[in-house]
Amino acid sequence: MMQQKLADSLNWTLLHVLIAIYEEGGISAAANRLNITQSAVSQNLKKLEEQLDSKLVIRNTKPLQLTPIGHYCIQVAQTIFTEITSIEAMKGSNSHLLEGEIKLLVVSRIHNPKYNDFLVYFKKKYPNITLDVTVKSSMDILNSLKQKTPAVGICLARHIPETLNQQLLFTQRYYLYCGYHHPLFSATDLSVDSLLKEDFIAFSSEDIGDVLSPITVFKETHDLIGRISAYTNNLDEAVRLIYTGYGIGALPDQFIAATHLESKLRRLPPKEGIADIPVYLFWHKQRALSPIEAKFIEEIVEFDISF
User: Fold this and answer.
1) Which side of the chain, N or C, has fewer Cβ within a 10 Å radius?
2) Collapsing DSSP states into helix, strand and coil, what is residue 1?
3) Under 8 Å CB-to-CB from 264, ≥6 apart: which residues?
């Protein structure tokens, strides 16, 4: 009876607010996303905690942290959201008639909950469309697409090739991090000045003109002159090197929030992060799209997976 009472009385809007707080990393950013006041966000969070008789958010933590029941509520809320979007997917009465295979070239380690929601939506609406997903570097994806390869690409790009159409999907905010085995992990009163001579882990694509060059621009602008102790072209290896104390480095915040190492990495100043790196959808301007490729592009653009 208690479970039934909660199910009957719980307001979906409150769960939606919790999702926004979690995905945006705080009450202020959630208020901006939902176009309501910070006070309204705080009040909705308080109402949800009162209904559940549990604390969901650990106050005054940066980045924002959830309690164990808060994490569970997020999982439940995101499941509900996905099911709600599937209602829209079922409205396309002829969608089951589309079939075939889409070759999708994707850069590694994209983490975006809304992208996951889109894939759920697309699968339910077009159950007979098969995705052939290949993970490549952004440079390899762009080179493949420029050769009119029958594929759609999702990747980073500093300079947009003239032969390709592009659609901005979302941006990844990069922050500086240190790991559990680094001296800064337990240091107090950190500022950007504290980082001036620290060793860095760098991505190969941080060279000026490449996709992650805004990271290099930030370091040069703020006189972060420490030596590069390791290079890598792999996000997982960058996380490993930062965790093991080889140096500090820039990582996409959305990805770190989804890893088991979140508690073993510490976000460093500046608190606002260092760069926004866009993630694009690409396809060739002069290659005729198949009906299912055109539908994939149309649906992901309309779904809007931006943060």
Assistant:
1) N
2) coil
3) 179, 180, 243
Q: Is 28 helix (H, G, I), strand (E, B) or coil?
A: helix
Walk along the chain (307 residues) and give the pLDDT tens digit of each residue.
Answer: 445 566 666 777 888 888 888 878 888 888 888 888 889 889 999 998 888 888 988 877 776 788 889 888 888 887 777 666 655 555 555 666 788 999 999 988 787 888 989 999 999 999 999 999 999 888 899 999 998 888 999 999 988 889 999 999 999 889 999 999 999 999 999 999 999 989 999 998 888 778 888 999 999 999 998 899 999 988 889 999 999 999 999 998 877 765 566 678 999 999 999 999 999 999 999 988 888 999 999 999 999 887 6
Cα-based angle 64, 216, 272 (whole degrees, multiple of 5) = 25
Cα–Cα separations (whole angstroms), residue 198 to 177, 224, 236: 12, 8, 21
Strands 57-58 and 100-106, bridge-based pairing: unpaired
The tokens for 202 are: 């760098």
Nearest to 299 by CA among 59, 141, 151, 117: 117
Q: Are 128 and 99 in contact (CB under 8 A)?
A: yes
Q: 96 with 146: CB under 8 angstroms? A: no
Which part of the chain is CATH 1.10.10.10? 2-89
State the Cα torsion 37-40-46-52 to the nearest 10°: -120
Q: Are 169 and 300 in contact (CB under 8 A)?
A: yes
Q: Which CATH superfamily is domain 97-168+279-303 in?
A: Periplasmic binding protein-like II (3.40.190.10)
